[in-house]
Amino acid sequence: MKVIVVYKKQSEHGRMVEDYLKDFSRTTGKLLEEMDPDSHEGSAFCENYDIVEYPTLVAVDDVGVMQNMWRGALLPTISEVSYYVQ
Fold first, then answer.
1. pLDDT tens sequence across 28-37
2. What is residue 27's three-state secondary structure?
3. What percent of the chain has pLDDT over 70?
């Protein structure tokens, strides 16, 4: 499984998400995948998973089936997300 963080770096939540990513890495030793919703790949990803709010964290299994999703500025705890990261 993996977790993808969809957010716009140049937004009001960009700094908060980047701090969260650093804290997650420091605490777990693992990295979360980042995706820009304005990129070609990000746009398709957002359409597939019906993502319209940023930031959004999406946990998917190895074949791409969504396991969990967290939307909006209230980010989940690191322990909630680390469960989904291999």
1. 999 999 999 9
2. helix
3. 100
